[in-house]
C-alpha cells in the first residue's frame, strides 16, 4: 500500500493524505506522542481516497513534533508529518542582519 501526502499536506492546521489506487483502505489511526488524535475525515474523489485530520493546538509546540498515520490493525506507519518549531535565541548584544536585539 502506498500513501502519498499531497502538495498541500498541511494547510491551516489540517494534515491531508491522499491515496489513488481505489483499494479498500486499512483502519487508519493518527498518532502523536503515543496518543491517538481524533477527528479523521474521509472523502472519495474518483479513485482517490482523501483523509484529513485537524491538528489540535497541543501538537504545535516547541521542539520537533512527529505525527504518524498508521494502520490500526498492525501499527505499520503509512505516512508521517514532522513539524519543527521553537523560539530563536541569541546573545542580547548580537547584531543579526543589521538588527540589534533589545529584549
Topology:
Layout: E1 4-11, E2 14-19, E3 28-32, E4 35-37, E5 41-45, E6 48-54, E7 63-71, E8 77-85, E9 95-96, E10 99-100
Antiparallel strand pairs: 1-2, 2-6, 3-4, 3-7, 5-6, 7-8, 9-10
- CATH fold name, please? Immunoglobulin-like
Estimated helix fraction = under 10%
Give me the count of strands: 10
Distance between the ends: 51 Å
Inertia-based shape: elongated
Q: Which regions have little confidence, pLDDT < 50, spanning 5+ residues?
A: 98-103
The chain-level mean pLDDT equals: 79
Strand portion, in percent?
over 45%
Which CATH architecture would you pick? Sandwich
Q: In the CATH hierarchy, what is the class?
A: Mainly Beta
Number of domains: 1
- Reading the helices and strands in chain order gives EEEEEEEEEE
Q: What is the SS-derived class?
A: mainly beta
Number of helices: 0
Radius of gyration, in angstroms, nearest whole number: 18 Å
Strand order of the largest sheet: 1-2-6-5
| Biggest beta sheet attributes | 4 strands, antiparallel
List keywords for this structure.
single chain, 103 residues, mainly beta, Immunoglobulin-like, four-stranded antiparallel β-sheet, 10 strands, 0% helix, elongated
How would you concisely characterize the structure shown here?
This protein is mostly beta strands and 103 residues long. 0% of the residues lie in helices and 54% in strands. It has no helices and 10 strands.
Task: Give structural notes.
This protein is mainly beta and 103 residues long. The protein has one domain (4-100): Immunoglobulin-like, CATH 2.60.40. Helix content is 0%, strand content 54%. The chain has no helices and ten strands. A hairpin with a 2-residue loop joins strand 9 and strand 10 (99-100). It is elongated, with a radius of gyration of 18 Å.
Amino acid at each position: 500500500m502506498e500513501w502519498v501526502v499531497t502538495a498541500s499536506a498541511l494547510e491551516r492546521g489540517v494534515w491531508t493524505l491522499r491515496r489513488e489506487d481505489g483499494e479498500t483502505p486499512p483502519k487508519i489511526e493518527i498518532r502523536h506522542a503515543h496518543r491517538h488524535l481524533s477527528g479523521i475525515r474521509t472523502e472519495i474523489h474518483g479513485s482517490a481516497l482523501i483523509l484529513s485530520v485537524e491538528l489540535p493546538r497541543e501538537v504545535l509546540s516547541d521542539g520537533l513534533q512527529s505525527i504518524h498515520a498508521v494502520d490500526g490493525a498492525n501499527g505499520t506507519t503509512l505516512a508521517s508529518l514532522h513539524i519543527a518549531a521553537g523560539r530563536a535565541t541569541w546573545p542580547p548584544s548580537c547584531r543579526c542582519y543589521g538588527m540589534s536585539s533589545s529584549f
